[in-house]
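## Example record

The block below lists the input lines for one assembly entry, exactly as stored, with component labels intact.
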Amino acid sequence: MIGNLNHIAIVVADLDKAIAVYRDALGAKVSVPVDLPEHGVRVVFIELINAKIELLLPIGMDSPIAKFLEHNPDGGMHHICYEVEDLIDAKKKCISQGLRVLGSGEPKIGAHGKPVIFLHPKDLCGTLIELEQV
Ligand code: CO
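Predicted structure tokens for the full assembly:
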């Protein structure tokens, strides 16, 4: 059911530092930061050949990733996003297999303007999983 890896999201405590290490030490192609206030994040996209890395900095008081940073002050991997052909079908299949969909369970428009759902990390080896409609 899942297709390609779309992105891995990493929460960072210091975005400038994160940009510098990815650009200068790892030689990555790093985008300019983009604010997504509706998601409570400032994000930098790193384009790899086969996937993206997203560096996320919480913005705003009610950012959903602010708590993550409290628990992980150095930052850390936040979620993995897999592409699916049919999100509604994928959601049904996940639920039928006992996986929990976070929030209302209804797809939301994600950071790339496409519908997404998130699956509970406790059901998936301790990793928050995002499914994105291709
Ligand atoms: Co994501």
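The two ends are 12 Å apart (CA to CA). The chain has three helices and eight strands.
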